[in-house]
Design goal:
With 271 residues, the protein is mainly alpha-helical. The protein has 2 domains: 168 residues, no CATH class; 40 residues, no CATH class. The chain is built from 4 helices and 7 strands. Strands 2-1-3 form a 3-stranded antiparallel sheet, with no helix packed on it. It has a two-stranded antiparallel sheet with strand order 4-7. The two termini are 52 Å apart.
Amino acid sequence: MSTSSANCPEPRFSRRTAAVVVVVGLTVAGALVGALWAWMAPPIHGVVALTKSGLRVHTYLGDEADHFFVAAAMLTGMLSGLAVVAAVLVWQWRAHRGPGTVTALWIGGVFAAAAAAGAGAALVHWHYGSVVYETAPVTQDNRVYYFTEAPPVFFGHAPLQIAATLLLPGALAALAYSLLAAATPRDDLGAWIATRPVGSTRPLGSEWPQGSEWPQGQIPPGDHPGNDAPQPNHAQVGERVEQGRPGGSNDVLVHGAPGEPVDEPPHGHGR
């Protein structure tokens, strides 16, 4: 029989396994979010023209250039929603609440963002193709070429912009989880707390063999504050304490208030 927090059953998986499940689950969910984004993100329509001097120029139709921002903002928003939902769902896994789980959430959020960006970019480029302005089919007879460009997954190509997009979902997931933890009145978050190492066959509680070393960081039964411990023998008021042979002259009669325990006097001394 194992000891656990109240109303929290013993988990079927170890904490390490639970962390791996969280990371892998978020990564798969991120890839699905990337596929959904590729289906929803607006493409960018533009035109390549050949001037009279033979120069190629390109521009975007109407407000189509705004889609560079809109598409990236859509992916960031979808990943942010995934991060918050994941934090709430993982919080329901009560047995594994704690710092290990929030760390797995943060790492999983980063992996989810990377998977979403990779899957989304691959799908939109497969669907719309790539536009190379220098090789656009424009001639003196056909000076205008219309194209459709794939939407971007990042706000820009700078390393800091890419890093911010990848780190934001993990940070939001950790923040949401931390807020749930802060709102919990219990110090242990209601998680399951093992009183012996997982997989150990040694008995628990009072069944632990005497003379055996107790696991590090755990307190043996009886040593907890408030538990009853063996008390020294006391003499009661009116009780004769034998100092020598029974009825001998060294016997001591204890005086004091009725019901007051009195320690035994040392041999050879009276009260």
